[in-house]
Model the fold of this input.
Amino acid sequence: MDVIFLDVDGVLATPCSRRLNRLLGRGPASLLLDPRAMRHLRWLVRRSGAAVVLSSTWRDGLYLEECRPLTDNLFRRLADNGTPVFDAAPVLDSGDKGDEIAAWLAAHSCRRFVILDDHDFFGRRPALHCRWVRVPGRAGLRRRQAMQALRVLQDPR
Done:
């Protein structure tokens, strides 16, 4: 199985989506995500056949009741987009996203993977860093990053 580790803030939740939600008066249970970023994620999932694994702090709703409406909305939006969440990386006491992704990889059979994130949490882990695609947080996932992610997923290493 191929996997896309997905961050949300800066990748799908962008300044554009925040302005849109503010204009429409949307709350946590109905927030919209950046439509262009969602389109590019859908393209990537369709082209690669990869499963989406959530590596964002938005997975807190899986464990904290007060965050549940936000996470439920995220899962619903991603499913409606044709990019359903397959799984979520574990939340570890270290709070280190690189450790969390490494733990998920150690527990699952994964052929290839890519990490979509706007921050570099992977510098001390070369095996993760080389599969990280930096998404510009002010713009979100765009065509250039989606194409780069597809190349990473197609790399046999």
